[in-house]
Amino acid sequence: QVQLVESGGGLAQAGGSLRLSCAASGHTLNKYAMGWFRQAPGKEREFVAAISWSGSNTYYTDSVKDRFTISRDNARNTVYLQMNSLKPEDTAVYYCAKKGLPFTSTDPEVGHTYAFWGQGTQVTVSS
Predict the structure, then answer these.
(1) Which residue in 92, 94, 114, 127 is a FRET match for 46, CA 20 to 30 A apart?
(2) What does 28-73 look like in DSSP terms, one character per residue?
């Protein structure tokens, strides 16, 4: 069974840090670009960050640049999102996603280019 499982969410204070993990089972991630998205209550899902299949290229939405870092460990079949200097507006459910086609990072911010999604992990930042 193909699964992406996020973990590492929780409650943090403003200015704090959390590290999200996305582990794959039933399939491999090492040929696929991966992305993180988030959805806050009452808002549409938005792109947060993406990483190419090799890890050599990363992409971020402007609001998280210089605060969040996406990385991957292909040997562990896992993708990470290190979140520093958290703000209350970062509060959301965070989802990881796997691109539908291998060896491409085209349109990393476009949700429908991702074929598999995790169930999400809640991140809550208090002020």
Answers:
(1) 127
(2) --TTS-EEEEEE-TTS--EEEEEE-TTSS-EEE-GGGTTTEEEEEE
